[in-house]
Amino acid sequence: MTELIVNMAGTTEAIPETADAVARFASGIGLDTEAARQIRVVLSEALNNIIAYALLFNRHQRIQIKCLVEKDVLTIDIHDHGLPLKTSSEYGCPKSGDPCPDGCTQCGRGWPIIVHWADSVEYQRKEGHNILTLYKTLAPSKADDQKRPYRGHTAPV
Domain of 31? Predict the structure, then answer.
């Protein structure tokens, strides 16, 4: 099992460093440059939504990002203890795989980008915290041939 855990401050200033760390991880486990860039953008949008809406009243909270590779899927779990999030479906935004519109009148550009570039997105509210999960499928040949795996690395941000 290959994983990366990042604990970041709940501030927008921490987003670039966190997104870069996850993109490097994605490249290291076999995603091509474009897919790793998409993961960086998707994660940046998701973190921005969490900070803007879930952590609205408590910016001192930490956000945990856990990246896990099993078989040919990269799973990114984002945990926070903020307010419940409104998801793309609640805004009426497109579903995963649908074309990405120029913008959504209710939710702006963030959710459409997230659901367009992630292969699947799940959200659940559990025991007082949010869990947003993003999935990206690796090309089978890349998943089987992990030349630079990260194993159990924890990177505080």
Answer: 2-156
H-helix segments, 51-139: 88-91, 110-117
Calculate the alpha carbon distances from 145 to 71, 87, 135, 141 in Å.
Answer: 11, 35, 19, 6
Query: What is the pLDDT at residue 148?
Result: 37
CB 122 within 8 A of CB 75: no
Instruction: State the Cα–Cα distance between residues 74 and 76, nearest whole angstrom.
Output: 7
pLDDT for 1: 65
CATH of the domain at 88: 3.30.565.10
Name which of 1, 157, 138 is nearest 65 in CA terms: 157
Instruction: Give how many domains the chain has, as a whole number.
Output: 1
Of 133, 108, 112, 118, give the one whose Cα is nearest residue 53: 108
Q: What is the pLDDT of residues 54-95, one digit of tens each?
A: 898 777 789 999 999 998 999 999 999 998 887 645 544 444
As given in the structure block, the two tokens for residue 37 are: 């860039």
Q: How far apart are CA 152 and CA 6, in angstroms?
A: 11
**CB within 8 Å of 157: residues ≥ 6 apart:** 6, 7, 8, 9, 14, 17, 18, 21
